[in-house]
Write a sequence for this structure.
DNA sequence: ATGGTTGTATAACAA
């Protein structure tokens, strides 16, 4: 079973890239973030034409998550934390179940700046994620998505100038470590060297060619799922195509 | 330090 996570930064704008990439990628379960479209306008037909089913929850301009599953997989999807707290973050959280596997797909709030109220929202979002991880820690479970945290100095090109960045500040890395405690970073099992990035800022000239980026998209797995992990890699190709997202897909293979 | 770019409520805001 091949899983992939991809922040598309508008699913409608990225449809040509998805139509080129998805059929060739061998992906069975794809988790999207930042679809940026209301449900009435979500482009479900192109996914169906490629042989996939799709579940989505979005809003105008911002946020939005989706689960894309190869036709024939028996999948159920629920949106939001469903923990009774407000807001529910239905357009940032999707929980998918298929067979014995459960996958939590999140688009973690970026946080704006370390002195902005949204940075605290980001931390409370992680706290609510932690509750799901606690619940699922004995299961075949993965937490995937745009987690908006580069966990270590090896996950950014220049850690020295990012100390106060909301995706790298020490307080968010520590918060992230506590949230993900007990889960393994699947990419790092197979690609331990620095220079593995999933996000390349549009504003950095020739970021892809110069490999100036961030590793902020992740696949994190429970011990029982890690036992079945067979490979994981970043597919840099779509980042180099015409009209790319600023993120690129991260894939992980499991013997399932 | 600042600014750089792209996406969408095509004007600001988010990232």
């Amino acid at each position: 079973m091949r899983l992939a996570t991809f922040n598309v930064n508008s699913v409608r704008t990225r449809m040509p890239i998805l139509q080129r990439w998805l059929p060739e990628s061998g992906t069975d379960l794809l988790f999207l973030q930042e679809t940026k479209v209301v449900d009435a306008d979500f482009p479900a037909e192109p996914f169906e034409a490629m042989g996939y089913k799709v579940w989505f929850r979005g809003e105008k301009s911002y946020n939005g998550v989706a689960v894309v599953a190869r036709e024939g997989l028996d999948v159920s999807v629920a949106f939001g934390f469903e923990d009774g707290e407000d807001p529910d973050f239905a357009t940032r959280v999707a929980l998918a179940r298929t067979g014995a596997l459960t996958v939590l797909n999140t688009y973690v709030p970026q946080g704006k700046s370390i002195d902005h109220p949204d940075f605290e929202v980001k931390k409370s979002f992680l706290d609510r994620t932690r509750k799901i991880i606690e619940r699922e820690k004995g299961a075949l479970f993965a937490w995937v998505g745009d987690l908006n945290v580069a966990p270590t100095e090896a996950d950014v090109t220049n850690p020295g100038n990012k100390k106060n960045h909301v995706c790298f500040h020490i307080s968010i890395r520590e918060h992230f470590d506590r949230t993900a405690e007990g889960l393994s970073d699947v990419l790092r099992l197979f690609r331990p060297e620095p220079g593995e990035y999933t996000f390349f800022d549009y504003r950095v000239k020739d970021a892809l060619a110069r490999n100036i980026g961030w590793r902020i998209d992740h696949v994190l797995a429970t011990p029982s799922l890690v036992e079945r992990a067979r490979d994981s890699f970043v597919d840099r190709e779509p980042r180099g195509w015409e009209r790319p997202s600023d993120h690129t897909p991260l894939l992980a293979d499991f013997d399932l």
Notes: The radius of gyration of chain A is 17 Å.
